[in-house]
Amino acid sequence: MAKSIWWVVVQQGKLPDFYALCYVDWLNLNLRGAAGFINGSLASCWSEFFVVTCWMLWKHRCSTIIDVNNAFRGDFLSCCVRLTREYVAEFNKPHVTVSQTSEVTSRWQKLSLGWIKANSDGVVRGIDILASAGSVIRDDQGRWVYGYARRLGRCSVLMAELWAAHDILLAAWDLGFHQVQMETDNLDVARILQGSSDALAACSLVDVILMILARQ
C-alpha cells in the first residue's frame, strides 16, 4: 500500500532517487519537506502529510494483523490528505493567550468517606470515525470498583463522551452508589452535566443523563 501512495504523490522522474536513499536519509528528506520531489498542493505540507501517512500505514498494518474486520477499507490516500489538511488548518488557527494561569494537580485526590469517583472518556478513531467509550469507578480509598469499555459505532466525539458519562453514571446507580464525583476531560460534557450548556439540548441521551443525575 505504501508504494502505491508514493507512486501517486511523488514526481515520476524523481521516484528512482526517492527510493534509492538509505533509511535515515530518506526519513530526513521527507521530514524536511522533500523539496522538488512532490506533486501538486501536497508540496507545501509534505512533512505533515508524510507523518500522517506513516501513522495511518502503521495503524492499518496493526489492524490487518490483529483484527482484519477493523482494517481500513476506504480511499486510503484521500483519508491521509483530509487528515493532513485538518491538522494544518488547526495548527494555523489563531490561538487565544490566557493571561491567568492555574496549577492543576494530576494525581488522584482522596474523596470523602462514602463517595466514589467515576472517570469517563470517549474516543473516535480518525480513520473510519468508529467510536468507543470507557469508564472506571474507584472508591474513597482509590480502589477499583468497576470499569468497562465498549464500541459505539460511528458518532461524534461529544456523543462518545456523553455515552461514556451515561454508562458510568447508570452503572454507579445500579451498584448502589448515590454519592458520585464525576470527572471528564471534555469541557462541553462537564457543562452539560452541570446544566450550564444548551449544547445538544434536544438530545434524548442528554435528557436521560440529567434524569439519572436528578435521582435521589
Automatic annotation (TrEMBL):
Q: What is this protein called?
A: RNase H type-1 domain-containing protein
Q: Name one Pfam family in it.
A: RVT_3
What InterPro entries does the annotation carry? RNase_H-like, RNase_H-like_dom_plant, RNaseH-like_sf, RNaseH_domain, RNaseH_sf
Organism of provenance: Hibiscus sabdariffa (roselle)
UniProt xrefs under SUPFAM superfamilies: Ribonuclease H-like
Q: Which CDD domains match?
A: RNase_H_like
Q: Where is the RNase H type-1 domain?
A: 119-198
